[in-house]
């Protein structure tokens, strides 16, 4: 990550730390968000996503570090003086105001004349597909519709940056999936940068241009979904994003890294001489073979540990020595594979991603 702000960044966060008493909730967090970008903050519960979002919004003040928006240092500015808006999981619409007035409320408070405020509110409602509901009241709308009103209200003032804290998590799964697509399209149409908190990796993968993976107050990796999945920067990221077989590897001098399964030698990452490595192998890249060798594959022998057939896909877990290796196939592929049956596993060297372990792992 660059140490100096990118000149064209809309949001530039530098070396933020935040403590709650003795608890270190954010550690040296730096991040740039470009104009019009959709960035997801992703990580397990308690990793600091909301704390980071609240620091950007101004509801929390970092102990140290700076936050700039559009080049202006906003670190000590109150929320309402920042050129952004926030959508929370539990949005609160005014029950006694019509949908139109709920959305027009923001511009009115900013001194926009009523006629113009109403016009802007109508445009915003049209964008979220709710123009026909303008005269109704919040209690007359479904949860998904209410969430759309909350969104319209958040962007009616055309902020440069919209912060969203798990805005879809209160919706049922089907509606949530639909809203993910809608929200993504809306963001592209508006061209407003979104910073979106979620603990749902599928949600992050399907919506964001870039994903920020957090763990225990630290940013572990920033990248697009594909990069994070195929080239995880740490054991934590490999394990948190999707399913992963994590196998130990041992450095053998300049020769390479010796894998625990298949005992193949794979090349080093640069000149790194650290002794401990983890090999990441995704289950869809592990093939089951009925012969000990196959061209281009690293192979080994094992025994079926278990077979889980869910109709759409089959996961076969194979014990190879002391290691377990999951192999995933589409469809029903577990026929004839019973626990205890001997089987060969194979994978391509190019599908193995090697991670060097830090000297002291967090
Ligand atoms: P979740 O997905 O569960 O919302 P999160 O990643 O958003 O998790 P945060 O809400 O940022 O996590 O919290 C990070 C850590 O800081 C947690 O351990 C939490 O208990 C702690 N924390 C957050 N706010 C406060 C507070 N006001 N006072 C004390 N501790 C806090």
UniProtKB/TrEMBL annotation:
GO CC terms of this entry: ATP-binding cassette (ABC) transporter complex
Keywords attached to this entry: ATP-binding, Nucleotide-binding, Plasmid, Transport
Keyword Transport: yes
SMART domains: AAA
Listed SUPFAM superfamilies: MOP-like, P-loop containing nucleoside triphosphate hydrolases
Molecular function GO labels: ATP binding; ATP hydrolysis activity; transmembrane transporter activity
A Gene Ontology biological process term: putrescine transport
InterPro entries: AAA+_ATPase (IPR003593), ABC_SmlMolc_Importer (IPR050093), ABC_transporter-like_ATP-bd (IPR003439), ABC_transporter-like_CS (IPR017871), Mo/tungstate-bd_C_term_dom (IPR008995), P-loop_NTPase (IPR027417), Transp-assoc_OB_typ2 (IPR013611)
Residue span, ABC transporter domain: 11-241
Pfam hit, one: TOBE_2
Domain of life the protein comes from: Bacteria
Protein name according to UniProt: ABC transporter ATP-binding protein
Species: Azospirillum argentinense
């Amino acid at each position: 990550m660059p140490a100096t702000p990118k000149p064209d960044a809309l949001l530039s966060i530098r070396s933020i730390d935040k403590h709650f008493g003795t608890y270190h909730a954010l550690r040296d967090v730096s991040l740039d968000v470009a104009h019009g970008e959709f960035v997801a903050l992703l990580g397990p519960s308690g990793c600091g996503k909301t704390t980071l979002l609240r620091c950007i919004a101004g509801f929390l003040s970092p102990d140290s570090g700076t936050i700039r928006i559009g080049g202006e240092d906003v670190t000590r500015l109150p929320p309402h003086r920042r050129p952004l808006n926030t959508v929370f999981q539990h949005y609160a619409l005014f029950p006694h105001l019509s949908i139109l007035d709920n959305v027009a409320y923001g511009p009115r408070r900013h001194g926009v004349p009523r006629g113009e405020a109403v016009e802007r509110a109508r445009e915003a409602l049209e964008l979220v597909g709710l123009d026909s509901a303008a005269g109704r009241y919040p209690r007359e709308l479904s949860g998904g519709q209410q969430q759309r009103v909350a969104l319209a209200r958040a962007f009616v003032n055309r902020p440069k940056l919209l912060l969203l804290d798990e805005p879809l998590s209160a919706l049922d799964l089907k509606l949530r999936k639909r809203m993910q697509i809608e929200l993504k399209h809306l963001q592209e149409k508006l061209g407003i940068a979104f910073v979106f908190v979620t603990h749902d990796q599928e949600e992050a993968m399907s919506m964001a241009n870039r994903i920020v993976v957090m763990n225990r107050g630290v940013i572990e990796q920033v990248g697009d979904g594909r990069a994070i999945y195929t080239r995880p920067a740490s054991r934590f990221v490999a394990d948190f994003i999707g399913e992963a077989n994590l196998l130990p590897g041992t450095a053998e001098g300049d020769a390479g890294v010796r894998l625990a399964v298949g005992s193949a030698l794979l090349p080093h990452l640069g000149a790194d001489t650290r002794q401990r490595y983890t090999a990441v192998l995704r289950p869809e890249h592990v093939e089951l073979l009925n012969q000990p060798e196959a061209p281009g594959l690293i192979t080994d022998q094992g025994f079926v540990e278990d077979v889980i057939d869910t109709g759409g896909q089959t996961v076969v877990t194979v014990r190879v020595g002391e290691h377990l290796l999951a192999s995933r196939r589409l469809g029903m592929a577990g026929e004839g594979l019973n626990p205890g049956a001997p089987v060969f596993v194979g994978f391509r060297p190019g599908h193995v991603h090697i991670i060097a372990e830090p000297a002291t792992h967090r």
